[in-house]
Structure formats: C-alpha cells, structure tokens
Amino acid sequence: MIDHDGGGRTVKTTETAFTIIEGLEELDGARVTELADHLGLANSTVHSHLSTLYEMGYVVKEGDEYLVGSKFLKLGEAVKERREAFNLIKPKVKQLAEETEERCQFIIEEYGRGVYLYRETGERAVWTDSGLGNRIYLHSTASGKSVLANLPESRVEEILDQWGLPALTENTITDRDELFEELSTIREQGYAVNKEESTEGLRAVGVPVMDGADELVGALSVSGPTHRMKGEWFDREIPNLLLGTANELELNLKYS
What we know:
By secondary structure, this protein is an alpha+beta fold. The chain is built from nine helices and eight strands. The strands form two sheets. The chain has a six-stranded antiparallel sheet, with helices on both faces. It has a two-stranded antiparallel sheet with strand order 1-2.
C-alpha cells in the first residue's frame, strides 16, 4: 500500500489507481472480486481502473486474472538510470556479494524510508525480505543507519517524527537519544552495524556512498547469519571491504 506522507492534497482517482496496482502486486495477480475484497473497494471501481490500466499496458490479463505488467520495468529502469551513480554502483554490489559470499544491497532514502535499488546474492547468502523496491525503516538496519548518520539532524528528526522507532526485534533501538549517540559513533568510524536489530539471526555492516560534491547518494551493506558474521570478519574485514568500495565509488563519481 501507499505508505508515505507527502503532505498536501491528493487526487482520489489517482490514489485509487495506484492502490489497485499495489494490491495486484501484493496478491501476485488477482481477479476483480478478489482484489476488490482485498482493498475494500467496489467491484465496479476496481474493474473500471483495471480496464483503463489494461488498455494502457500497465496490467496484463491471463484468463480472468489481472497481473502487474512488464511496462513498469521500463519506468523502474528509468528511475535507476536517472542518476549516473547507479550505473557505477550496480557492478560493485555484485562484486561485494561474490567476494563475501553473502548478500549485498544498496539503498537510497525516499520519504524517510530506505528503498532497495540493487541486491546481489553470494554463494552462501541466506534469504531475506530485502526485495528490490521494498521499503524499510532506517533505524534498524546497517545501511539505514549509515544514511541517517549522513543526513542533517533536522531531517533525521523529521523522519523519526514521521515513522517513529518501532521495535522489529528485542535488539532494535527504540530510544531517540540512544539512536543519536549511535549515529555519532557511525560518523566517527565511517560504518554502521546491525546486530539482529531488524531480523533475528541476521547481522550486517553498512557504509554511506557519497558523490563528488560530498552529498549522500545511498548506502551499501553486506548481511549474513550471526554464526558467520562475527569476530574479525564482522568487526574489521567486512567494514574495511565496504569502506574501500565506497571510497572507490566516491572517486569515480567525483571524476567521471
């Protein structure tokens, strides 16, 4: 569902259309009645919007079931290609996944949440719900805390006012003062860690990626199970690997 609060007025018809699209994605395809029940909308409303979206090519139909169409891929690619940085970052995500054999991802901040743009899986990586386009809380992940640590304090306050500090596990930081203290540490050492703060049994290390003007682009992270993410590997080797990759990206962005 639409979960950001952009402020100002919204056009109800447009909002309904996107709610229907997101509902289709959530259900992985649905019939009109099934989707209407899922969203709490009238069958006629859902049918009308789906018919228009079908004519425009944004949904496809298989029998009596509608699915999100591949036309959205083109729009998604346009978003990623909009910044030159993304073209440089994608191969680095793959390289990190291969070197660590774990899961590597890159996020950006949008509407106060983290959005996964790239994700690659190493040979030993475990499954997580970090699907492309998924939105996450910033306070509970290594990449998210790397982002927060490099935003103006006023912006961080806005994000916390909007989304709060919900506890995802017993290790999640839920105190604002404690979070700001950790953000200060992250700025000093250059990287953030997630010690089972978003998912039990999962740890991660994250670093910010800055552009040539020292503006935040997003954050890289490597995640894996706690039984592997420990000792020198977790405390030093992965942070150094990520910091080196981020530094290389920043130089490429500055002089490209």
